[in-house]
Structures are given as structure tokens and as C-alpha cells.
Task: structure prediction
Amino acid sequence: MPEKIPPHKHCKECGKATPIDATFCSSQCETQHTMKLRRRRNQLYTYYLMMILLLVVILVYLGYFR
Result:
């Protein structure tokens, strides 16, 4: 006979089972998740900035800005 598993969700950071109304299992996991998202956002902004700078350099090299 299979065991009954109570309703639950999993922590977004570590994957541990949490109650239905909780998103993270601890404040440490919530902090780590927030830092990870902030780091990803900053990497994305850096990537966009580098692409814009590369486009400007290419356009200057081709003579569009003289």
C-alpha cells in the first residue's frame, strides 16, 4: 500500500519540501536565491552593454560616425 504524501511544494533554491504557503525553506535559501537573481540580472546588463559598445565600435570603424 503506497504511503500518503502530504501536500507540499519545494524550495526554489535547494529543493527541500516546504509547506504549501512557503516558497523557501529558510531565510538563508531566500537570501541566496535573491543574490543569484541579482547576479544574473547584472550579467545580463553587462552583456547588453558590451553588445551596444561593440556595435558602436563597428559603426565607427565602418565610418558611420565621422
User: Anything to note?
Assistant: The longest strand covers residues 9-10. The mean pLDDT is 93. The helical segments are 27-62.
